[in-house]
Design brief:
By secondary structure, the protein is of the alpha/beta class. It contains nine helices and six strands, in the order βαβαβααβααβαβαα. A six-stranded parallel beta sheet has the order 3-2-1-4-5-6, with helices on both faces. Keywords: ATP-binding, NAD, Nucleotide-binding, Nucleotidyltransferase, Pyridine nucleotide biosynthesis, Transferase.
């Protein structure tokens, strides 16, 4: 099988996440995409994030009904800091006959060299970098640092340009503003029911990468 691994904080999961996953699934003919909520993202040390059970449940609600989407508790069950190379290594050991693909936003491609063992990541999986409409994708800095042998391990694809970020959704929720049509209705209702993000102070919107 061709399995796409899509890691993130998903706090909350939103429509841009789903569009990215679907674009990558179609572009690379993926059989399954595993949404992988991080237990503790390495790029957010000390930052307060929603409990893993809430972020996991929101992903389950968001992908319900899509026959190719799955949710994985691997990083949540493992606890500790969630490093992508460790996750890929574990999956590769458990499923040696499957091909692994790592889904990332195109903006994360420029940060790949700062992740733990980027060459190890590319040895384990083919990266699908999805352009979210912000900036052109450029694989050359990665190849210059890691070697030309990895060129075929990085695929580029496009998705509709949708300017939605989890940070902005948390901010809007904290301000009592609507997040309708930016996240699935089931996730919106879950956020309202659990009163997530109500006590957050507004913060500038940022994009997220998951090393």
């Amino acid at each position: 099988m061709n399995i796409g691994i899509f890691g993130g904080t998903f706090d909350p999961v939103h429509l841009a996440h789903l569009l990215l996953a679907e674009a990558a699934r179609e572009a690379a003919a993926l059989d399954e995409i595993w949404f992988m909520p991080a237990y503790a993202p390495p790029q957010k040390p000390g930052k307060v994030i929603s409990p893993p059970r809430d972020r996991l449940e929101m992903v389950k609600l968001a992908i319900a009904g899509h026959v190719h989407f799955r949710v994985s508790k691997l990083e949540i069950d493992r606890q500790g800091t969630s490093y992508t190379v460790d996750t890929l290594r574990h999956i590769a050991e458990q499923r040696p006959d499957d091909r692994l693909f790592l889904l990332i936003g195109g903006d994360s491609l420029a940060d790949l060299l700062t992740w733990r063992d980027p060459a190890g990541i590319l040895d384990l999986a083919t990266i699908i970098a999805v352009n979210r409409g912000r900036t052109p994708l450029d694989v050359e800095p990665v190849l210059a640092a890691l070697g030309e042998q990895y060129r075929e391990r990085i695929q580029l694809c496009e998705m509709p340009a949708v300017d939605i970020s989890a940070t902005n959704l948390r901010q809007r929720t904290a301000e009592g503003k609507s997040i309708r049509y930016q996240t699935p209705r089931s996730v919106e209702l879950y956020i309202d029911q659990k009163r997530l993000y109500r006590d957050e102070q507004p913060k500038p919107a940022t994009t997220q990468a998951v090393p």
